[in-house]
Amino acid sequence: MVAPDRIQDLRPGPPRPGRYVLYWMQQAQRASDNPALDLAVHRANELHLPVVVAFGLTADYPEANLRHYTFMVQGLAEVGAHLRRRGIAFLPFHDAPPQAALRLAEGAALLVSDRGYLRHQRQWRREVADRAPCPVVEVETEVVVPVEIASPKAETAARTLRPRIERQRKEFLAECPAVDPNLSARPLDLRGDFDPEDGEALLRDLPLDRSVAPVPAFRGGYREARRRLDRFLREGLPGYARRSSDPVAEATSHLSPYLHFGQIGVGEVARAVQGAEAPAKDREAFLEQLIVRRELSMNHVWYRPDYDAYTCLPDWARRTLAEHADDPRDPCYSREPLEAAETADPYWNAAMIDMRTRGFMPNYMRMYWGKKVLEWMADPQTAFATLLALNNRYFLDGRDPNAFANVAWCFGLHDRGWPERPVFGKVRYMNARGLRRKFPIEDYVRRVWDNSDPETP
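== Deoxyribodipyrimidine photo-lyase ==
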């Protein structure tokens, strides 16, 4: 059964007479290792009702474009097929997510929702809870330890959150076996607005921002996520603690886009890593990133309403950056040459091209890429806004709590003060000499250019 601490009543009350139990799927776009779906099935079996899943697909999701929608739709096709085999109705609608849920709430005995962390996602759930004619239950699906259980406040660093997570990690990683519905939803004869398995037609008809193309390097969906995880367990996890920072080796799981779209559960990934045949130090190094660092970002966006604004930075960082705001920048770039990868730094250009071409970038290069934007732009506020805009536009895992926290990290969030220097003040600095000293970085540059589109500048 789903852990009680994962469950919150948004609209309390006993189930009412209804035709089905409704799961409003939005964040957890998967049919396995999904506590919200599991709870909906359990409650439906108790009430002797079938399960219906609603999904709202809006064409104007904040900062999303064709790249993001293509990846998401590929995953939704798998979800629809999987749920249908289990006798669960999957009804996707061309509608704002709250409206999709409310369209079906009238016939529901109970409405179950997964959890979203960003401002608009939380507002969606408040709207549904306020307007639904039935009880509404929210289930934590995307972290190991629920955000409020892990900490009641915004944490200042990984070191302050880590012991709170570690004390409870084992309890919340216990597997909850999936249960199928006792009653099929097929006799309900309900229909959504589109066929999720016809992704090509769906993408063609949606009025999307088409300025950023899909990427062939990543295909969405659980099957591909699981294939990447299995390969990582064999090839990437052994030696992970030593090699994970190397942008040339790129010994990472490549799962961040799949976790962002909820196409694979963090619990499934963590349990697979715990049981893998790899040295303990490698398993723990990966779990540190997957659980502690990722859930630190969830903590950030949950407790900081200004998570996407410059004001979210710690006082010491804003103070030291203000003291150096008038320091000369040489070179000094605007957004246009940065986005076109037309700087004097070949390593940064390669990282930008990698991001535009693949929708992904090795973690160490992400840090270097972000620090250079701070160094090169006219003031730190402009740098912050530009970095976040580029991150969310091109990365498949942009617009995620991790994205907001990682961008802010480049400006001092969840970090400490370092020796003072021009432009950066006491914010951590990175330079090209460090890249050359630590890695065969020219190999990364060559690989990016070899794999880039011929039209890429």
